[in-house]
């Protein structure tokens, strides 16, 4: 999967999780940033 197609998918999943469990916002944002950072470094 290409990074450009993976980012919107991760964002969509994170957005849905935040809607259903708002208290997870900090963890979801942190995980999103870590995943995007790793993908950027690896350039998948």
UniProtKB/TrEMBL annotation:
Protein origin, superkingdom: Bacteria
Keywords (A to Z) from UniProt: Membrane, Transmembrane, Transmembrane helix
Keyword Membrane: yes
Annotated transmembrane regions: 12-42
InterPro entries xref list: DUF3096
A Pfam family annotated for this UniProt entry: DUF3096
Name the UniProt record assigns to this protein: DUF3096 domain-containing protein
């Amino acid at each position: 999967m290409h990074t450009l197609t993976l980012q919107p998918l991760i964002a969509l999943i994170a957005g849905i999780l935040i809607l259903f469990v708002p208290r997870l916002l900090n963890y979801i944002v942190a995980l999103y940033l870590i995943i995007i950072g790793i993908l950027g470094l690896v350039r998948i």
